[in-house]
Amino acid sequence: MTRKLSLTVEGKNVAVYVHKGDLPADASFVGPVAVDCEAMGLALGRDRLCLVQISDGGDAVHLVQIAKETPAPRLQAVLADPDTLKILHFARFDLALMRHQLGVMAAPVYCTKIASRLARTYTDRHGLKDVVKELLGRDVSKDQQSSDWGADQLSDSQVAYAAADVVHLHALREKLNAILEREGRMTLAQACFDFLPARAELDVAGWPEIDIFAHS
Ligand code: MN
């Protein structure tokens, strides 16, 4: 059961597929994948994961509507694949959400928000919209951010919004890596990305707002 919508990103046509429950058997990804999640809200444990968007930066974006208490084995396999880098913006929350609900910890990961914090120390604006605007000169709409992602039928504007959240991440990673390399912070950034699954696991396991590195 697949619905298709077309999107134009920087003059390139991108097909957006909406799947119920899991990725289709014939979905395949080459290289790193951009991943994003939409949920009923922002409270881990209260708000369920509704949608996972995934794209390898090619001409397709796959949106998987997550069914309640039903596994998504094909999606889980991609998330857990040690040879597939997952690129996310603010990976910590999405990792915890997917771990909590799908039982899988996504790894290895690259977080464009952490990369931005380490690279763009001249600003405190690290939201996806701001980083994409500055580094790529592209506009991302955030007007569907708060909407009913648990709906059985997503609207065309929800589908377009959800897809837009993953289509810029590959280009963003390249721009951020260039700054991190230039400023000598790539090794530190990589160490932070490597720690992210453990940080998300702490969130799930009951240390959400506690800094275990702090003195008190
Ligand atoms: Mn999103």
Describe the structure.
This protein is α/β, with parallel strands linked by helices. The protein has one domain (2-205): Nucleotidyltransferase, domain 5. The protein contains seven helices and seven strands. Strands 1-2-5-4-3-6-7 form a seven-stranded mixed sheet, sandwiched between helices. A hairpin with a 4-residue loop joins strand 4 and strand 5 (60-65). Helix 2 (91-102) packs across helix 7 (186-205) and helix 3 runs parallel beside helix 6. The radius of gyration is 17 Å and the shape is globular. The protein starts with a strand and ends in an 11-residue tail after the last helix. The model has no long low-confidence stretch (mean pLDDT 95).
Fold blueprint:
Blueprint: E1 2-9, E2 12-20, E3 33-39, E4 49-55, E5 60-65, H1 73-80, E6 86-88, H2 91-102, E7 109-111, H3 112-119, H4 128-136, H5 156-167, H6 169-182, H7 186-205
Parallel strand pairs: 2-5, 3-6, 6-7
Antiparallel strand pairs: 1-2, 3-4, 4-5
The structure holds manganese (II) ion.
Q: At the fourth CATH level, what is the homologous superfamily? A: Ribonuclease H-like superfamily/Ribonuclease H
Q: Strand fraction band?
A: 15-25%
Q: What integer is the average pLDDT?
A: 95
CATH topology group: Nucleotidyltransferase, domain 5
CATH architecture call: 2-Layer Sandwich
In total, how many beta strands? 7
Question: How many domains make up the 3D coordinates?
Answer: 1
- Identify the bound ligands: manganese (II) ion
Structural class: alpha/beta
- What's the total helix number? 7
General shape: globular
Low-confidence stretches: none
- The largest beta-sheet arranges its strands as 1-2-5-4-3-6-7
CA-to-CA gap between the ends? 52 Å
Helix/strand order, N-terminal first: EEEEEHEHEHHHHH
Could you estimate the helical fraction of the residues in percent?
Answer: 25-40%
What radius of gyration results from the CA coordinates?
Answer: 17 Å
**Broad CATH class:** Alpha Beta
Largest sheet: 7 strands, mixed
